[in-house]
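The instructor's notes for this session suggest beginning with a concrete chain rather than abstract definitions. Hand out the sequence below and ask the class to guess, before any prediction is shown, which regions might be ordered.
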Amino acid sequence: MKVDVIDFKAKRVGEIELADEVFGVPVRPDLMHRTVRWQLAKRRAGTHKTKSVAETRGSTRKPFKQKGTGRARAGSRRAPHHRGGVAIFGPVLRDHAHKLPKKVRKLALKSALSAKQADGKLLIVESLDLGSAKTRVLANRIARLGWSSALVIDGDEVDAGFVQAARNLTEVQVLPQLGANVYDILRRDHLVLTRSAVESLQARLA
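After discussion, reveal the predicted structure:
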């Protein structure tokens, strides 16, 4: 399919051919959901932890004799039903990451790209050269374009001036093409690709 290529003044400067096997595949919400869960699970630190009985401070002495008191037998003041005792079944150090097949991840990324294209939220720009690395210039152009929230993906190297201009804009996220991922594509309203990003993604995913 052919789509227009624009600049940051919303002027048409050319066109580009998008591969149907990357930007025109059937949208698979199930695979995108699995991939987003996989991404978020990998980000979790897993460092939350409660102390075990061995790590809790307290005497090892039996608090009272086994029989004759009328009370339930007890062997330690560090037991979970005593004040200052351990938390029963508390969290432990663990890795939350799980495996997801490479083919699933690849198809989910193509599905996310195709979903943006189908919704009319995919925009192709010639380059990220603004002529100025000022945040005010970029903010004004984004306001004119009507991008409330945008993920901008460049080629292998992201334009340094654009990164500097976008640094303080919370509604704009900038990534190189190798950083393209399902979660960031779906969480932003618009997806903006440079011509070099399109070529790299098609070479990688086709």
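Then share the key points. Strands lie at 2-6, 12-17, 122-125, 150-153, 172-175, 190-194. Residues 50-90 form one domain.
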